[in-house]
Amino acid sequence: MEFPEEISGDEEREALASFYRSQVTTYQEKANYYLSLVKKYTKLLEEIDEKGLIEASARKAGFDQKWPWLQKIRFILFNQGEYMTSRQIVDTLKSYQPSVTNPIKSISATISQNSGQDGELHKYSAIDGNNYVGLKEWEDITGHKKIPPIEGA
Question: Are strands 121-125 and 131-135 parallel, antiparallel or unpaired?
Fold first, then answer.
């Protein structure tokens, strides 16, 4: 690797090399830390799944089937951490509350009633043709939104 001409002398080269070595070390330490977390939580999820506690863990995580629709939608969006379509919200709801049957009309009505300037939800149409819903607090002060990835892109 050649250094740019403006860097001359062994001291400058060694200082630059030392800086990048320290950066690599820092990133390696961070990567190792995050890998250890992934291993830890993967093992925990496997243990939970082996015991058949996935549905019970959803209840333990704070989900309550008696909540009104808006609270269920907020819970799902918060836990997923991204904008979702109504269909995705319904599918996720069914994993928390398998006994629910055809909640799409109730979810759609709740989204319509609670989106807009004063609502708790934010709705937008994406270039992929889908309408997405997210939490109002996901907008920053400039109005930028957390855009979900486009499937198949």
Answer: antiparallel
pTM across the whole model: 0.55
Give the E-state strand segments of 17-136 in sequence order: 121-125, 131-135
Residues recorded for the chain: 153
Three-state DSSP class for residue 31 = helix
Amino acid at 112: S
Q: Which candidate, 92, 90, 97, 109, places its Cα nearest to that of 65?
A: 97
- Helix pair 104-113, 69-80: axis angle to 10 deg: 90
**Distance from chain centroid for Cα 115:** 20
- The per-residue pLDDT for 52 is 54
Which residue positions in the chain have pLDDT lower than 50? Answer: 1, 60, 148-153
